[in-house]
Amino acid sequence: MIEMQDVWKTYPNGGHALRGISVKVDRNEFLYVVGPSGAGKSTFMKLIYREERPTKGSIFVNGFNLEKLKQRKIPYIRRNIGVIFQDFRLLPKLTVAENVAFAMEVIEAPKKLIRKRVSEVLELVNLRDKAGSLPTQLSGGEQQRVAIARAIVNNPSVIIADEPTGNLDPETSWGIMKLMEEINFRGTTIIMATHNKEIVNTMRKRVLAIEQGQIARDEARGEYGYED
After folding, report:
1. Residue 47: inside a domain, yes or no?
2. Domain presence at residue 8
């Protein structure tokens, strides 16, 4: 589903964020991306949904070479990638249902389909009773569930999650991870950057460790491998 071939990312100040990354992620995989702060994890994630572009190398998503993709095709690729951020990034003046629906409205989905799909995903994330609430009326965990609902509402083939439990307490974090596991079980590939040692060591999924812009480890049922 995703393949990087000798990918380098150099920023204008001359620093190498990524150096010669080559990796494959299969359909329906659950991959943790770990490593010290500043190792290149966020750059790695941004390259997949083309918020950043590589300085050198090739990136393939669902068979498309992102570097050779015409600009008008970028929205189509992004439609198949759900992105979840640590800081939620919800629209504060829209209700829960409206925040989720917005992701379908931008691709001009039919209104009837939007209503049906929004109801389905709010049921999945256990927020149907909060559909009319504003983000400020929700807890941090509930806001992250809205962000997850928004990320999956268009049935993406892959979800990119950058520190989705970073601002949450341990109990809430486990609730979010159970939800992520359920989404993965339903067939969605998940790539998640995290500093949460307990979650990684308990769930024992594939672990990709990035250090100083290079792959240090790639283990099928890996552990976090760093001290807090």
Report:
1. yes
2. no
Which among 226, 211, 225, 224 has a CA at the least distance from the CA of 19? 211
- CATH (domain of 104): 3.40.50.300
33 three-class SS: strand
Enter the DSSP assignment of 161.
Answer: E
The answer to the question of residue 1 being in a domain is no
Q: Which domain holds residue 113?
A: 26-56+75-219
Give the rounded percent of residues in the chain with a pLDDT score beyond 70: 99
Model confidence pTM above 0.70: yes
Q: What is the mean pLDDT of residues 112-117?
A: 96
Pairing of strands 56-61, 64-65: antiparallel
Domain count along the chain: 1
- The set of long-range contacts for 7-10, using a CB threshold of 8 Å and a minimum separation of 24, is 7/47, 7/54, 7/56, 7/57, 7/58, 7/59, 8/54, 8/55, 8/56, 8/57, 9/40, 9/43, 9/47, 9/52, 9/54, 9/55, 9/213, 10/55
Q: 175-209, pLDDT tens digit by residue?
A: 999 999 999 999 999 999 999 999 999 999 999 99
